[in-house]
């Protein structure tokens, strides 16, 4: 009975478009743009070393930088004398990609370190330091050209997003800080650039690379921007790319106190998000990734809204997924509320799926409670598509006698069910389970049906007729 709908976080591999020739470029700004976009992100190796290309002062040519592999981790040796100091993260172990500063300007543990550090006193080291300072100057100018809408548009195409991703992967604090400032700025539409990136099929990959590159303080600014307006946050969760971006944030923050900013917003709009197919998977991501303590308020919201969720098409599927993770006293409270309302839910076209799921949990105490609350309703729900499945499930339990006794309470009930499109399956099931146990209930059920065999010989009743007569 469970229906499932999934979202894929995957985007088809991007093919590199041919870059325009230098002859086609007429302005200095375009020359600079081409120069930075030629930043090579591919790695090759030789004699235990790999190379990563960055720009030289001629604009189009590339300067190789050696990347030493130390203890299985790569450390690119280069740096910038005038790099802006970035404070160390408050929770560096909690936030992947967080930065730390040491040695008066070298960026230890990042992909980009001081080239001259291992070559102190050599003219070659001094020369490369000068070149790298020139390269940083070019990147500054390039990023200065990308403001607001221009930055969004640049990140919204495959070539542009690869350029910005490449700059972020250098893990240089000044470059990362500059890009962070740009995504926190507003576009011409009055919306934060970061929100527009999260909604774009290409821009969301720049957003993902960015949050992986930030230190704790920078990440806090981004999360504040995403969560400060509840309506904008909810809008993100309800569309494909925005939903995927929020799920990436949840995975990144799973051990950080910043995740409470996200979960608080999810709680505030819980019913709206949980009754949306795309949005519900954002909350499901919390249930999968976060601790029970971090999910506590979300589970409370699920308990409070469980009946409204149970009668909604998307909500009932979302609620069923909650069963897979909720634990302890909160689980007991949720199941207690639902089981106490099974007579109502069993007759709802969506709610009956929740009742079926509850019975399938095979909890004896819970199943007995459900079967007890349905007494007096079995004959009624057997005439409904979903309800007939519930009645059949109850006939497979040790409380099956309650189901049969409900039919026997009136001489018309067995016949009405036997000739019904859905009810005939319930009567067949009742005859089979009572005959197998050689119960008196089987004889009583036969006595009610045999006088009406001529009526059952055609239509939906034929299935019951064949079972009784052996036809």
From TrEMBL:
Q: Which InterPro entries match?
A: ARM-like, ARM-type_fold, PUM-HD, Pumilio_RNA-bd_rpt
Q: Which parts are the Pumilio repeats? A: 265-300, 337-372, 406-447
A single Gene Ontology CC term: cytoplasm
Disordered: annotated segments: 1-25
- SMART domains in the record: Pumilio
Query: GO MF annotations for this entry?
Result: mRNA binding
- Name the Gene Ontology biological process terms: regulation of translation
Task: Indicate the segments forming the PUM-HD domain, all copies.
Answer: 116-471
| Residues of the signal peptide | none
| Gene3D superfamilies according to UniProt | Leucine-rich Repeat Variant
Keyword Repeat applies: yes
- Any idea which UniProt keywords this protein has? Repeat, RNA-binding, Translation regulation
Instruction: Please indicate which superkingdom the organism of origin belongs to.
Output: Eukaryota
Q: Which Pfam families match?
A: PUF
The reply on keyword RNA-binding is yes
Q: What SUPFAM superfamilies does UniProt report for this protein, alphabetically?
A: ARM repeat
What is the protein's name according to its record?
PUM-HD domain-containing protein
Q: Which organism is it from?
A: Salix brachista
Provide the organism lineage as a comma list: Eukaryota, Viridiplantae, Streptophyta, Embryophyta, Tracheophyta
């Amino acid at each position: 009975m469970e229906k499932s709908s999934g979202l894929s976080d995957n985007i088809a591999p991007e093919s590199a478009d041919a870059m325009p020739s230098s002859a086609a470029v007429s302005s200095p700004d375009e020359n600079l743009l081409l120069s930075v976009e030629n930043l090579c992100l591919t790695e090759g190796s030789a004699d235990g070393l790999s190379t990563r290309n960055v720009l030289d002062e001629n604009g189009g040519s590339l300067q190789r930088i050696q990347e030493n592999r130390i203890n299985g981790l790569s450390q690119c040796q280069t740096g910038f004398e005038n790099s802006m100091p970035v404070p160390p993260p408050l929770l560096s172990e909690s936030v992947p990609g967080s930065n730390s500063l040491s040695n008066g300007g070298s960026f230890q543990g990042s992909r980009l370190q001081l080239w001259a550090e291992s070559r102190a006193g050599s003219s070659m080291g001094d020369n490369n330091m000068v070149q790298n300072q020139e390269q940083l100057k070019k990147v500054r100018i390039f990023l200065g050209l990308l403001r607001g809408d221009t930055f969004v548009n640049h990140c919204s195409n495959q070539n542009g997003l690869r350029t910005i991703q490449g700059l972020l992967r250098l893990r240089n604090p000044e470059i990362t800080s500059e890009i962070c400032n740009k995504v926190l700025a507003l576009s011409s539409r009055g919306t934060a650039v970061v929100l527009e990136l999260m909604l774009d099929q290409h821009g969301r990959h720049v957003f993902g690379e960015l949050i992986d590159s930030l230190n704790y303080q920078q990440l806090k600014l981004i999360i504040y921007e995403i969560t400060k307006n509840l309506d904008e946050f909810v809008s993100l969760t309800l569309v494909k790319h925005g939903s995927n971006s929020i799920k990436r944030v949840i995975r990144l923050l799973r051990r950080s106190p910043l995740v409470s900013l996200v979960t608080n917003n999810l709680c505030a709009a819980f019913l709206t998000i949980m009754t949306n197919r795309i949005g519900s998977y954002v909350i499901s991501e919390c249930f999968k990734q976060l601790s029970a303590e971090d999910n506590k308020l979300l589970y409370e919201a699920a308990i409070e809204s469980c009946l409204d969720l149970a009668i909604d098409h998307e909500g009932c599927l979302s609620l069923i997924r909650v069963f897979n993770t909720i634990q302890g006293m909160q689980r007991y409270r949720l199941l207690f509320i639902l089981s106490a309302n099974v007579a109502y839910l069993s007759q709802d076209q969506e709610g009956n799926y929740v009742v079926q799921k509850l019975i399938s949990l095979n909890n004896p105490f819970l199943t007995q409670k459900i079967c007890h609350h349905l007494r007096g309703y079995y004959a009624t729900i057997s005439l409904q598509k979903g309800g007939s499945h519930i009645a059949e499930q109850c006939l497979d339990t040790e409380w099956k006698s309650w189901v049969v006794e409900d039919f026997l309470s009136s001489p018309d009930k067995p016949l009405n069910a036997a000739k019904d499109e859905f009810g005939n399956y319930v009567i067949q099931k009742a005859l089979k389970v009572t005959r197998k146990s050689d119960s008196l209930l089987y004889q009583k059920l036969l006595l009610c049906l045999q006088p009406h065999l001529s009526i059952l010989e055609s239509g939906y009743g034929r299935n019951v007729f064949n079972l009784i007569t052996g036809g």
